[in-house]
Write a structure and sequence with these properties.
The chain has 216 residues and is mainly alpha-helical. It is built from 10 helices and no strands. Helices cover 68% and strands 0% of the residues.
Amino acid sequence: MENGVDGPAEDGEGPGQAGDRRARILDSAVDHVAAHGIADLSLRRLGAGIGVSHRMLIHYFGTKEQLLVEIVRASERRQRDLLSRLRVEPGLSPADAARNLWRQLTSPELSAQTRLFFELYGQAVQGRPEAAPVLDGLITDWLAPLAAVETAGGADPATARARARLGLAVVRGLLLDLLATGDRDGVDAAMEQFLAVYYPADTDGEAPIEPEGPRA
């Protein structure tokens, strides 16, 4: 077992305690999916891997499909938190912050989560009700932190929001490209070209993106 977060639910467990316990289980589930992928994933197998009973997973998340949606949303929150930390890192230009985020998003450790993201995204836009919640905030939750980077660089609010949407679309498009082709060199080169246009003052003479870890 990776993280023992089980144990019988306490009688009279308050809302705060239940929320904390649910959050800990979800964090463990995100880590498990990152490490092991989603092939042949069941609530029983996931529960065994993170040290909870499958009945506990049903209690807090309902169905496997609902849990997978929550895993995607939690992973997205982690990525936004990373962006927020990169934004305030001393001496880091917007282009370098974008490079560091790109390296994290394209690391082999996140490939299973990225694949799950696009799988549920596709199901949601097709109207599958069990996947629909993944669309909540899928775009809008990213616009504020991305636009904040732009306004900090002097862009007006409307331009900042449009640039934020463009940047998000390019990153997700290249992530899908990487899943489809496995061409890490190609998507890295494309990202460098995008950054050169997006942040021309910050990319002159910069070193190209080097991936972290083994190539996918």
